[in-house]
Design brief:
Serine Threonine Protein Phosphatase 5, Tetratricopeptide repeat, 191 residues, single chain, mainly alpha, elongated
Length: 191
Amino acid sequence: MARSTSNHTSRALATIVRAALVPFVFAATLVLSGCGGLSRSDRPARVEEARGTVAAPAPGTATADTQIAAYSPPAEPQIARAQPNRAVAVLLRRAEDQQRSGDLDAATVSLERALRITPDDALLWQRLAGVRMAQHRHELVLQLAAKSNALAKADERGLRSENWRLIAQSRRALGDGAGAREAERQAAALR
């Protein structure tokens, strides 16, 4: 009796599996038959020719009058000149306002923030040197003005002249009269 119950259960299970498997096999057959598509020809795809150019002939069909269009290089990309960073302009104005109101520490912070954004800006280095001059930090002024001169372009004569003037004042304050006179000569040569 146990054997017939087991046999009956396995037959019922096989029927259920067959009933679920038949639709799946049918669906898979439909999907896979769609991959074959319509009959294909052995011809290559048709290529349209652009106006004014001569297409290269198929391999093995070259003729004596076949021409290939001359190479013309692509147009040069137009590179927009970088605009001054708006954040830097705002920080510079803020530093100038802070310096005018006598808050030299805040002006220093604003200029240093601007320099983190554009570290190669000679004007920012020069303005920071000016703030440090007002704070009587003469050793630092020498370094900052020299850095500004190193970054300044050749045509920025006014900026470079002002840097030399700051260097002259700092050298004089540090007791270096000869160095101050040399810096004043450099400033005068740039005016």
